[in-house]
Design brief:
Number of helices: 11
GO molecular function, one term: peptidase activity
Strand order of the largest sheet: 1-2-4-3-5-6-7-8
Keywords: Hydrolase, Signal
Order of helices and strands: HEEEEHEHEHHHHHEHEHH
CATH class of the largest domain: Alpha Beta
Number of domains: 3
Shape: globular
CATH architecture of the largest domain: 3-Layer(aba) Sandwich
CATH topology of the largest domain: Rossmann fold
Distance between the termini: 50 Å
Family: Belongs to the peptidase S33 family.
Protein name: Proline iminopeptidase
Helix content: 40-55%
Strand content: 5-15%
Organism: Flavobacterium xanthum
Largest sheet: 8 strands, mixed
Structural class: alpha/beta
Number of strands: 8
CATH superfamily of the largest domain: Alpha/Beta hydrolase fold, catalytic domain
Length: 350
């Protein structure tokens, strides 16, 4: 009889414990789309944030989706000079997991101010811009995850190397830590995979600085981008991606990256960028994402995960540069697991 009483008491305590824990999770889900206590309710989460620069004050566009006091992901888009639109696939995955995320157009991008001054397009100034956005949005080390894809990955690494004390987690999506090694991978590994006749046409146009020739971008999209940027026929690309490319600021893009994703060309300012030697100083939990068909070497992405002190590697076997679109079944579960593992104190480096 005594044993039955003890067993009943134990079961009751277990059930009570579960009941006590459940509302904690349910409260985040229940309040996820409640904007009633936020100052951006009228704009649906959109804020134009003033940014101080050496050339004056400008405004950048942000939009917050959802409420989660413990997980807030600031998204740094690629380019440079592209837009937050390349992340719109996240709408189909993050809300169901009650993950708060913030779209953000960097200065010079379509939805933000676009000053015509190339002196503004430096890594150091963009890092300070991200820091001002963080402060304006009230993000801190208890909730702030920074996620950067492509050029956004460069910016995320640069920010973390200066301000990792402000971060709860870091995600580097499809970006190597060395522009010279990125160029070498494009030249020595990816270029030989192309039809030799197509490759020669591209190389001849690059040699002649004939980047404005419509044939140059036509060949790139048909024979390179559909293999290594987004693995779908261009006619089937999601509308958000075609809109993103339509909204590109070519002045910022060419000044920093060059004329295409087929390596960094000309005197683009990112040509010699390299932070490999500094990554070992990063202690913040870090997810590095690489993809089989990417413009970036997936082995290098794996190296990043091992080089930082608390890294994890996510490999997308069917993905390319925009693996959130061509390998979502691997990409999103891996990203969501990382966010939740860090939040729950269950993160383990790979």
């Amino acid at each position: 009889m005594k044993l039955k009483v003890l067993l009943f008491a134990a079961i009751s305590m277990l059930l009570l414990s579960n009941c006590q824990q459940k509302p904690k999770d349910d409260s985040i889900k229940a309040n996820y789309l409640d904007f009633s206590k936020r100052d951006d309710q009228l704009t649906g989460g959109i804020k134009m944030i003033p940014i101080k620069t050496p050339k004056g004050t400008f405004k950048v566009w942000t939009k917050t989706v959802g409420n989660n006091p413990k997980i807030k992901v600031l998204l740094l888009h690629g380019g440079p000079g592209l837009t937050h639109e390349l992340y719109e696939a996240f709408d189909g995955y993050f809300p169901n997991e009650s993950i708060e995320y913030i779209y953000y157009d960097q200065l010079g991008s379509y939805y933000s101010d676009q000053p015509d001054d190339n002196s503004l397009w430096t890594n150091a100034r963009f890092v300070e811009e991200v820091e001002q956005v963080r402060i304006a949005l009230g993000l801190d080390s208890s909730n702030f995850y920074l996620m950067g894809q492509s050029w956004g990955g460069i910016l995320a690494m640069e920010y973390a190397l200066k301000y990792q004390k402000n971060l709860k987690g870091l995600i580097i999506s499809n970006m190597m830590a060395s522009a010279p090694e990125y160029n070498a991978y494009a030249k020595n590994v990816l270029a030989p995979q192309m039809d030799p006749k197509i490759l020669k046409q591209l190389q001849d146009m690059e040699k002649n600085n004939d980047f404005d020739n419509p044939k140059y971008s036509e060949l790139l999209f048909e024979y390179y981008y559909t293999e290594h940027v987004l693995r779908m026929p261009q006619a089937q690309w999601p509308e958000s991606i075609t809109r993103c490319f339509k909204h590109i600021n070519p002045n910022v893009y060419v000044y920093m990256q060059g004329h295409s994703e087929f390596g960094i060309t000309g005197n683009a300012t990112l040509k010699n960028w390299d932070v490999k030697a500094r990554l070992k100083t990063l202690t913040v939990p870090t997810l590095s994402i690489g993809s089989k068909y990417d413009t970036m070497d997936p082995e290098h992405m794996k190296w990043i995960a091992n080089e930082v002190q608390n890294g994890r590697f996510l490999f997308c076997p069917n993905g390319s540069h925009l693996s959130q679109y061509d390998d979502p079944k691997t990409y999103f579960p891996g990203v969501i697991k990382f966010l939740k593992d860090v939040d729950n104190g269950e993160f383990k480096k790979s």
